[in-house]
């Protein structure tokens, strides 16, 4: 039964609700609604001018309505008088086709028609930097190989444990926190769940991490590559697909425990990889993380090629364990809803069309990639990825009018970037 928010507000001491939606570029937009008005907001939605956000709408359009999903309620652990509510988008009485959460829900329903349910866990790497954003905040965090640095982790004990305590309280089952491979970089892991639950938690995690960092005088960033010589922030997604409570990716008779259905799902991701990048690696800056030169730590840990492997972190897809795989392409800028939707759309296409993922490559792709013929490279920049998305039948069919809307907004962004004159151009072209 759906939660009655007015009653929940009284019982839990919630004074305000943050009715929140995520736009095409992943930005969270919200209205703060007093508890006394939440019943009518649930019925009628909270009104927004869609054009004012990244949704490809016009200033002449009717009101965009954000209709909260009571089942997604999360009480802010650092401000319990506020309840966050993820919302679905409605306009003129119809669901907004390009709304990211709407798309994911549509695809989850589509999978359910085949009796399938996707479960995922995400690893949202982030940096703790100075408020002005110019460098990692911890001046003592300078090691060349800073991964798992115990002292640097413990110098951030107050922030990390405040976030982890919050996740414990929310019942997300967090199980580990660490310092990652770049100076100032961290990762916090919680348990996997249904794709929509993970997407809502992913969106909330980004908001929570930024908010709690700010409380501690720091800034948290999920930017894919904030520092050129350091490892960037990925957002790996671990994926399994279930039917009637059974993991259909699990097959003990396979050498590495992956079923035929799992290989077909992977085949789907491989088939659409360059188009997927436009969604999972959505920014100009995303392409400084993939295909990147070696970082000072010794490896970028990001993929360069459309390949899969067993338990080896140098490929786009890793199968660490039977019954699941890790999709390593996505980065910190990925929209939490579109990330899940893109994986599900490409994977379902793979299962339905029995796509062949090709040969598993058990080599160090960073050093020995050149020894294999016919390996496909990931897109080198945002424009190449956008063009691939434009051509991709699988994602155009699954995402509908989202694709032209998204490409239009992204083309504007690309043009704005191209109008930017860089120091590199001046240094290398003034004397041409
Ligand atoms: P690694 O750093 O080795 O990639 P992490 O422990 O950081 O792995 O993250 C693993 C993620 O995978 C977690 O969110 C975990 O809950 C999730 N996971 C584990 N098993 C499955 C599964 N069967 N299906 C989907 N996600 C899974
Ligand atoms: Mg991890
Ligand atoms: Mg990982």
TrEMBL record:
Alphabetized GO MF terms: ATP binding; glutamine synthetase activity
InterPro entries cross-referenced by the UniProt entry: Gln_synt_N, Gln_synt_N_sf, Gln_synth/guanido_kin_cat_dom, Gln_synth_cat_dom, Gln_synth_gly_rich_site, Glutamine_synthetase_typeIII
Cofactor: Mg(2+)
Family membership noted in the UniProt record: Belongs to the glutamine synthetase family.
NCBIfam families: gln_synth_III
The keyword Disulfide bond is annotated on this UniProt entry: no
Organism in which the protein naturally occurs: Methylobacterium durans
Record lineage: Bacteria, Pseudomonadati, Pseudomonadota, Alphaproteobacteria, Hyphomicrobiales
Functional note: Catalyzes the ATP-dependent biosynthesis of glutamine from glutamate and ammonia.
Residue ranges constituting the GS beta-grasp domain according to the UniProt record: 12-94
Name of the protein in question: Type III glutamate--ammonia ligase
The keyword Nucleotide-binding is assigned to this record: yes
A Pfam family per the record: Gln-synt_C
Keywords, alphabetical: ATP-binding, Ligase, Magnesium, Nitrogen fixation, Nucleotide-binding
Domain GS catalytic residues, every copy: 100-432
Name of the gene this protein is made from: glnT
Gene Ontology annotations of biological process type: glutamine biosynthetic process
